[in-house]
Amino acid sequence: MATQQVMGLGSGFLDNTLFENLKKVQEETIIEPLTKKMQTNLDKQTSLTEIMALVEQLKTNVKKFADADTYNKRKATTTGDGITATISTGIPVQDITVEVHQLAKNDLTQLGKKYESRDSTFSTANTTLKFNHNGKDYQIDIKAGETLADVAQKITDTTDGAVMGIIMKTGGNEPYQLMIQSKDTGEANRIYFGNTLTSSLVRGGQLNSNFDLTIKDANGNDKTLNIDVKTTSSSTTQNNAAAIVKAIEDAMSADPDLKSLLDDGTFNLGLVNDGKSFVINDSRGLDFSIAEGQLGTGVQPTGLDALGLKAGTTSIGTDDFTGSTTVKGGAIGGVVTIGGVELDLSTITNANNTAEQNLTAIVNAINNANGDVQAKAVDGRLVVNDTSGNGNVQIIFKNTNTSQENADIISKLGITGGFHTSAANFLADAGVTNVQRAQDAKFSWNGIEISRPTNTVDDVVNGISVELTKEHTGTDHSVLRITRDDDDIFKGIDEFVKTYNELITKIEEETRYDEKTKVKGKLNGESAITGIRSTLKNILNFTAGSSSVSISSYGFSFDDDGKLKIDEKVLKEKFKEDPEIAISFFKGGEFTVGGSEIPKRDANGNVIEGEFERIGGTKMVIDGLFTQFSDAINKMITGSTSTLKSYEQSLKDDYKRVEEDKKNQQERLDQRMEATRNRMNAFDAMISKMTQAQQTLQQMINASSKS
Fold first, then answer.
1. Among 169, 176, 178, which Cα is nearest to 116's?
2. Which CA distances in Å does 422 have to 194, 195, 322, 381, 392?
3. Which of 127, 177, 548, 691 is found 20 to 30 A from 500 (Cα to Cα)?
4. CA distance 647 to 643
5. DSSP strand pairing (418-420 vs 125-133)
6. What pLDDT shows up at residue 4?
7. Does the pLDDT at position 3 exceed 60?
8. Nearest 10 degrees: CA dihedral of 616, 618, 619, 620?
9. What is the pLDDT of residue 539?
10. Percentage of the residues of the chain whose pLDDT score is greater than 90
């Protein structure tokens, strides 16, 4: 662009003011109409954005009414203490009567001995704590000098937390006490201390069995019971296991000295492995035995294996000391005292002795000493028992032994120093008392007796979870009442009406035209916008005339200003009157209207708990009010080809087109004005020269006249 010059210096009238006025006229004529057109477009886009936001909100309000879950919400209330409940959507409306006979509990056992602190020595003797939980035997090896806290942690660790060692502070000078508790509730989680036998899986089908069970009664006398088990061919494994337990209970109950053991929990029977196995337990730790019985002549017996049993004696281990390993052969040096009997092993063993010879020599040396202990060989191990009544055997390594000699004694004889006592003795001294026996929850569900291992029951009827919280007595019971939860429906309809009216009001504002003031809305005459109102109102009118029910049936109406309103009382009453028809009106789909609901039955004619079927009625296929709204709104706003999205894009395209036109027009105008400026500068220069020539001529004339 050429260098601009200050205009008017030569002519005095072709100045910048004249040029700027000329330029302003050109811009007002060419540029400003385009600027106004762009602003109008932006105003339309702003208004359209506000309308689309309201349509989106209406879409959200309407969408829930096209979803079946909206109509399937339920609420649960309970009368009477004893249960709480949670339910899923779609559960049939019903009343369920629940009577809680007993709550599920975990097993809790306390050891009678008390301690000053958690760090107090638990036992001065080496021993073993044995118990059975859920069909599995556990052995907790307790070392002399271990603390209360050590033993509690050992119990928890050994069982992977299934059984927990818990230290409780109960008060007094020695306030700490060890409690042993099952983690989970239910009969299968009982903890059996003492001598326990867990059967293998009992066979299903018919049993025709007889076996002898020998146990010690309350007076310590052996009693042999003949147990007769007979079941039918249709009996399940669980039925048969329960029948065996019942047969043993009946036989023991017939003897007062055995019945007392059952009553006070000294002798226990139970079911494990989902009721497919059974448990026989003597908490005293005393031995009991099983032997094959005899059936009558000509009767084909069912063997012990069908009962999950084997003939033989079950023992917890009543020996005070048992070597940890088998005795080894060869020479062994050093001196060890066992139960007061000193043994110089170098004189008892020699390099040529076999393991058996060494074990025999040591046993004979102990027994020949006529001390307070008695020794024996069991499966290649040294076993020693106290005969003085102290209940323990002390083992001492002589202080003159070398470290190597002590190491040889430990490794070759399986001997450790200190006091040793049997698992049975420890159990008797520990004062084991069952504080709470693990049990299943037992309850009735609409009169049907049910048991479960926990108090949380969620598998009686799918979608209903009940927490049993209190046992009922007498005629007490709880009623779980499941009803429709339509509050969200009514709230959603209120929101729909509000958003619908906000949208219609906005559309009227943006498309209005006032004849008196000639004022019109930013979107006046835009069919994409005016069509929204007519489309939605047509749906309301169409639905109203398409079936025996209408929007007015559910409390909808229009006020004098054409706004939608809802009478909530009418809505709720009509919905409650027949929810199925209401759902068909709002959602649509195929519905059976009328008829009645009856309990559903299986192929055998038995009632299926919690399931119902509708009998009678008329099937109808209906385009619901909100389904029609949803379809219409999707055509307006969903996808790039929808009505409003297309209109929005056309406004954006038009804005870009005008913006480009304005840019081009501005460039052309700038070029024309530059050319005009140059021509005016040239004219100004010419006028300036002519003025100067005129002035020179005039000066010459004036000078001539004077002369």
1. 176
2. 11, 13, 9, 15, 7
3. 548
4. 6
5. parallel
6. 47
7. no
8. -160
9. 87
10. 63
| Side-chain half-sphere CA neighbours of 667 within 13 A | 5
According to the model, what pLDDT value does residue 31 have?
A: 84
**Cβ(460)–Cβ(450) under 8 Å?**
yes
Give the Cβ contact number of residue 271 at 10 Å: 22
At 363, which helix (H) or strand (E)? helix 355-368
Enumerate residues 6+ apart whose C-beta is below 8 A from 569: 555
Tell me, what's the pLDDT at 249?
Answer: 96
Where b means 16+ CB within 10 Å and e means fewer, 539-562 reads bbeebeeeeebbbebbbbeeeeee
CA distance 22 to 14: 12
Tokens of 599: 């309990």
What's at 368, amino acid-wise? N
200: which residues sit within 8 A by CB, 6+ positions away?
277, 308, 309
Q: Label each residue of 641-688 as H, E or C.
A: CCHHHHHHHHHHHHHHHHHHHHHHHHHHHHHHHHHHHHHHHHHHHHHH
Q: 515 near 524, Cβ under 8 Å?
A: no
One-letter-per-residue 3-state SS of 192-246:
EECEEEECCCCCCCCCEEEEEEEEECCCCCEEEEEEEEECCCCCCHHHHHHHHHH
Annotate 376-439 with DSSP letters as a single string: EEETTEEEEEE-SSS--EEEEE-TTS-HHHHHHHHHHH---SEEE--HHHHHHHHTEEEEE--B
Quick check: 139 pLDDT over 80? Answer: yes
**pLDDT tens digits, residue range 364-383?**
999 999 889 999 999 999 99
pLDDT above 70 (res 15): no
Task: Identify whether the C-beta of residue 492 lies closer than 8 Å to the C-beta of residue 505.
Answer: no
For residue 420, give both structure tokens: 């040793």
User: Tokens 């020539």 appear where?
Assistant: 693
The pLDDT, as a whole number, for residue 495 is 94
Would you say 380 and 355 are in contact if contact means Cβ atoms under 8 Å apart?
yes
**Euclidean distance between CA atoms 198 and 133, whole angstroms:** 10
> Quick count: other Cβ atoms within 10 Å of Cβ 482?
21
Q: Which residue has the tokens 């020693």?
A: 384
pTM of the model: 0.71
Residues in Cβ contact with 275 at an 8 Å cutoff, skipping those fewer than 6 apart = 237, 238, 241, 242
Name every residue whose Cβ is closer than 8 Å to that of residue 49 and which is 6 or more positions away in sequence: none
Confidence of residue 316 (pLDDT cuts 50, 70, 90): confident
d(CA 468, CA 102): 9
What pLDDT is attached to residue 704? 80
CB 118 within 8 A of CB 521: no
Q: What are phi and psi of 607, to 5 degrees?
A: -65, 130
Closest by Cα among 636, 630, 684 to 530: 636
CA nearest neighbour of 428 among 166, 148, 113: 113
What is the rounded CA–CA span in Å between residue 261 and residue 129?
A: 22
Confidence check: pLDDT of 413 > 60: yes
**566 - beta bridge partners?**
556
State the alpha helices, DSSP H only, in 75-162: 148-158
Run of H or E residues at 260:
helix 256-263
527-544 helix and 487-511 helix, angle to the nearest 10 degrees: 140
- Among 241, 229, 240, 239, smallest CA distance to 278 is for 241
Q: Which residue has the tokens 């009991």?
A: 288
- The residues, any chain, with a CB within 8 Å of residue 383's CB and separated by 6 or more, are 319, 321, 322, 323, 375, 376, 377
